[in-house]
C-alpha cells in the first residue's frame, strides 16, 4: 500500500469538492480534516484491493451527516443536509454550484457522488440507503435539470 | 452520459493553497494523536536533494535522489508503517543540522537516530561508524575490528553500502585499504564530495 501522503495528494481535491457540495464552507473544511484523520487511523487495516477514493468519499459522506446533526443540535433546526450549501470558494462556475445545491437531496447526493467523486451507483445506493437503479435515476434527473438550466441560459 | 463537471481529481490553482493548509492541519492533528509512523521532508544539499525520514525514535532514513524518493517511501510503508506524511516541522532540526554540516559549520550531528532498518551485524557496524572522527577515514578492515569481527571485512562493506542513514551516520568515512574510495549509496562522486568537504 502506498504511503498515506500519496492518498492525500491523489484524493484530497476530490474529497474537498464532495465536502463543499454537501456543506457550508467552514463545515466543509472540518469535514475534510475529520475525513482524512479517520482515514489515517484506519489506513493500516485497509485491504490492498480497496477502492481508496470510494472509501474516502464514504467517510466524507458520513462526516458531512455528522456535522449536520451537530449543527442541527446547536443551531437552527435543519434536515440531514442543508438546502443550499455554498462552496467555500466556488471553483468553476458559481452558478453551476448554486444549481447543484438547489437540487433535491437525493439528486444532489447522486450527482455529487457519481459525477464529482466517481463512485459507482451501487456504492451510492449503499450510502444513501436506496437501490442502484434509483441512484442512477436520481443522478440522471439531477443532470437533466442542470442541462435544462444550461440550455435556457441560467448556466453559462 | 457526459458530465457537466471537469473530470476529477485535478485541483484548481485556487484550491492548491487551501489543500496545503488542510494538509498542514492534518499533519498537526495526526502528530498530536501519535498517528504518524514516519514523517519526512526533503533537504537541498551539494549531493542533491536528500529525503530525510524520521519515526518518533529518531532519523530512520536518509535517501539520495538516485534511490528514487517515491520508491524509498513505498519501501518505508512496507517496512515500518503506511502512516507516512510529509512533515517538515518534525524534521526542522535535522534540516538545520544538515545545512550546517554542508556549510562546513558542523562536525557531528546531535540527533536521535533510529537504526531499526539495520539488522544484526550490519547494525553493529552502522552503530560503530560515528566513532570515526570528522575529517578522518578508516578502512573496511579497521571497522571490522572495531565492530568485533576482524575477519568480516566484506560484511562491513555491505553494512556501509546499505547504511539506512548515510551522511548523518558517516559510512562515507570508510574507504578501501588501498586508498581508493569504495562504494557508496549515493554514488562515488557524492562520497568524494563529502570527504573533500570534511578535509576542508
Number of helices of chain B: 7
How confident is the prediction overall: mean pLDDT of chain B? Answer: 93
* Beta-strand residue fraction of chain B: 5-15%
Question: How is the main sheet of chain B built?
Answer: 4 strands, mixed
Q: Main beta sheet of chain A, described?
A: none
What is the number of helical segments of chain A per DSSP (H or I, 4+ residues)?
Answer: 7
The backbone outline of chain A, from C-alpha atoms, is globular
Describe the structure.
- The complex is a heterodimer of chains A (156) and B (200).
- By secondary structure, chain A is mainly α.
- Chain A contains seven helices and no strands.
- The model of chain B is unreliable at 6-10 (pLDDT under 50).
- In chain B, strands 3-2-1-4 form a four-stranded mixed β-sheet, sandwiched between helices.
- Chain B contains seven helices and six strands.
- Chain B is 40% helix and 12% strand.
- The A-B interface holds A 1-6, 8, 10-14, 16-17, 29, 32-33, 36-37, 40-41, 43-44, 53, 88-89, 91-92, 96, 115-118, 140, 143, 146-147, 150 and B 1, 3-6, 8-12, 14-15, 18-19, 22-23, 25-26, 29-30, 33, 35, 38, 40, 73-74, 76-77, 81-86.
Secondary-structure blueprint:
The complex is a heterodimer of chains A (156) and B (200).
Chain A (H helix, E strand, L loop, with lengths): L3 H19 L2 H18 L9 H23 L19 H8 L3 H12 L4 H8 L3 H20 L5
Helix pairs in contact in A: 1-2, 1-3, 1-5, 2-3, 5-7, 6-7
Chain B lengths: L12 H20 L5 E6 L6 E6 L2 E6 L5 H11 L4 E3 L5 H11 L17 H9 L9 E2 H7 L6 H9 L12 E2 L12 H12 L1
Parallel strand pairs in B: 1-4, 5-6
Antiparallel strand pairs in B: 1-2, 2-3
Helix pairs in contact in B: 4-6, 5-6
Supply database-style keywords.
heterodimer, A: mainly alpha, Arc Repressor Mutant, subunit A, 69% helix, B: 200 residues, Double Stranded RNA Binding Domain, globular
Amino acid at each position: 500500500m502506498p504511503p498515506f501522503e500519496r492518498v492525500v495528494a491523489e484524493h484530497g481535491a476530490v474529497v474537498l469538492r464532495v465536502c463543499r457540495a454537501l456543506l457550508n464552507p467552514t463545515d466543509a473544511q472540518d469535514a475534510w480534516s475529520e475525513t482524512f484523520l479517520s482515514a489515517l487511523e484506519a489506513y493500516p487495516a485497509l485491504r490492498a484491493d480497496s477502492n481508496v477514493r470510494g472509501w474516502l468519499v464514504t467517510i466524507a459522506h458520513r462526516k458531512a451527516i455528522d456535522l449536520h446533526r451537530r449543527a442541527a443540535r446547536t443551531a437552527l433546526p435543519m434536515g440531514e443536509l442543508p438546502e443550499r450549501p455554498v462552496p467555500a470558494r466556488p471553483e468553476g462556475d458559481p452558478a453551476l454550484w448554486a444549481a447543484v445545491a438547489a437540487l433535491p437531496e437525493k439528486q444532489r447526493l447522486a450527482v455529487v457522488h457519481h459525477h464529482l467523486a466517481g463512485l459507482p451507483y451501487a456504492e451510492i445506493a449503499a450510502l444513501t440507503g436506496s437501490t442502484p437503479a434509483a441512484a442512477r435515476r436520481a443522478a440522471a434527473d439531477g443532470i437533466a435539470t442542470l442541462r435544462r438550466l444550461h440550455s435556457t441560459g441560467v448556466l453559462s | 452520459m457526459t458530465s457537466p463537471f471537469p473530470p476529477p481529481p485535478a485541483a484548481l490553482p485556487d484550491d492548491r493553497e487551501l489543500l496545503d493548509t488542510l494538509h498542514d492541519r492534518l499533519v498537526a492533528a495526526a502528530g498530536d494523536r501519535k498517528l504518524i509512523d514516519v514523517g519526512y521532508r526533503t533537504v537541498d544539499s551539494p549531493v542533491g536533494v536528500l529525503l530525510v525520514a524520521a519515526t518518533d525514535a529518531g532519523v530512520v532514513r536518509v535517501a539520495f535522489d538516485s534511490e528514487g524518493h517515491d520508491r524509498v517511501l513505498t519501501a518505508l510503508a512496507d517496512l515500518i508503517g503506511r502512516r507516512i506524511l510529509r512533515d517538515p516541522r518534525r524534521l526542522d532540526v535535522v534540516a538545520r543540522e544538515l545545512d550546517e554540516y554542508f556549510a562546513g559549520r558542523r562536525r557531528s550531528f546531535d540527533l536521535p537516530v533510529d537504526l531499526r532498518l539495520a539488522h544484526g551485524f550490519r547494525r553493529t557496524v552502522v552503530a560503530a561508524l560515528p566513532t570515526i572522527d570528522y575529517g578522518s577515514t578508516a578502512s573496511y578492515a579497521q571497522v571490522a575490528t572495531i565492530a568485533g569481527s576482524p575477519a568480516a571485512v566484506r560484511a562491513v562493506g555491505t553494512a556501509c553500502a546499505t547504511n539506512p542513514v548515510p551522511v548523518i551516520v558517516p559510512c562515507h568515512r570508510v574507504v578501501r585499504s588501498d586508498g581508493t574510495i569504495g562504494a557508496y549509496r549515493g554514488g562515488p562522486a557524492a562520497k568524494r564530495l563529502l570527504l573533500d568537504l570534511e578535509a576542508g
